[in-house]
Amino acid sequence: MLALVLVAILAPVLAPRDPYAFNLNERGLPIRMQAPSVAFPLGTDPLGRDVLSRIVYGSRVSLIVGFASVVIGTLLGTVLGLVSGYWEGRPDSVIQRAVDTAMSVPGIVLALAVMSVLGQSLVNIILVIALVIAPGASRVVRGTVLAVKQETFVDAAQALGASPGRVVARHVLPNVFAPILVIATVWLGNAIVIEAALSFLGLGTPPPTPTWGGMLGGEGRRNLETAPHLAIFPGVAISVVVLAFNMLGDALRDLLDPRLRNR
Known about the structure:
Layout: H1 2-9, H2 11-14, H3 51-87, H4 89-103, H5 107-118, H6 122-148, H7 152-159, H8 164-172, H9 177-200, H10 212-217, H11 219-222, H12 229-256, H13 258-261
Helix pairs in contact: 1-3, 3-4, 3-6, 3-9, 4-6, 5-6, 6-9, 7-8, 9-12
């Protein structure tokens, strides 16, 4: 994770070449689909662009989409979960039926449907992934709130005359923060996978912006037999980053859950 953040921030320094430039040979022709070499460590694509530079700059898109969508989706899910779990009754019934409806549709199908309506842009991708994250996050938060509501300190705050909003903000929310943090961390990896899948299907960030999913689904898929490096290296980048986020989420869950800490 730290490596991804550093690569994204220092992309202009770390990238050996311009990710949008067409590299030409002595005759002025693009160096198309060259295999990895000293000059081009990860080779070039069909337009002569440096694959390493495009992977380095593609980390920025993955990082922006991952963090922005997870923050928005987790905040929305937290608000819905708090309202649903604490007030229960009719608000709980309405919210949970909406959550059930959203969770009955596979995330990638929902994302494809919304993207086909909204169109291709980085902002739309972030909003779509946030909508996919929110229902699951709200369900986890609601379950935790229902358990915290039964604690004695919540009864004491209510007996002292604290308003429902104050009870939620001062006593309930701090006690559901650990599950929220774990959800957000795990979903970082899932958000990157969804962005890559949308780009792979042609509904992600529009070209020529370099994205790992776009590289994998565009030049990589069309030239898999003749130039496998075009698909291998973006795929490895996606796999390593998603694994890192998932391992961080598992570690945070073990650290924040007293029942798992001794393991």
